[in-house]
Q: What sequence folds into this?
């Protein structure tokens, strides 16, 4: 089972990557910082300086239909912000 689900490619994380050598990923909710660090180092062949994680709660959503109002929630996700050691870089666009 892979701990990393997908990279976060937003304006904020792109600016952090250029400025401070930090990258964001959506990871498995049960993953620990050590597991995330090991998988990033194995997959991208880089050295990780630190891992910061946060759990983002799901938001309530409503959909109005002809018959009723459907209530639900979006899924909660865990984000990981990876800081790489000097001289290391991750290029998400190399395969395009």
A:
């Amino acid at each position: 089972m892979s701990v990393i689900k997908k990279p976060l490619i937003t304006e904020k994380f792109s600016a952090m990557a250029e400025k401070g050598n930090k990258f964001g990923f959506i990871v498995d909710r049960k993953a620990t910082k050590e597991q995330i660090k090991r998988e990033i180092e194995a997959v991208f062949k880089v050295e990780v300086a630190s891992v910061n994680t946060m759990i983002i709660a799901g938001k309530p959503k409503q959909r109005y239909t002809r018959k009723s109002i459907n209530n639900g929630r979006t899924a909660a996700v865990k984000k990981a912000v990876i800081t790489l050691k000097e001289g290391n870089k991750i290029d998400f666009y190399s395969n395009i």
Remarks:
- The first helix runs from residue 11 to 20.
- Strands lie at 4-8, 22-27, 48-56, 60-64, 69-73, 77-84.
- Residues 16 and 22 are 5 Å apart (CA to CA).
- The chain has a mean pLDDT of 92.
